[in-house]
Amino acid sequence: MSVPAELSARSSRPQTIWEYRALIWNFTRRELKSRFKGTVIGWAWSFVGPLATILIYSLVFSVIVRVQPPPFGNGHPGNYAVWLICGLVAWNFLNESLLQGMPALLGNGDLLRKVYFPSFVPIVAIALAVGTQSLIELGIVMAILLAFLNASWTWLLVPFWVAL
Question: Which residues, given as ranges, of the chain have pLDDT below 50?
Answer without folding.
Answer: 1, 3, 6-9
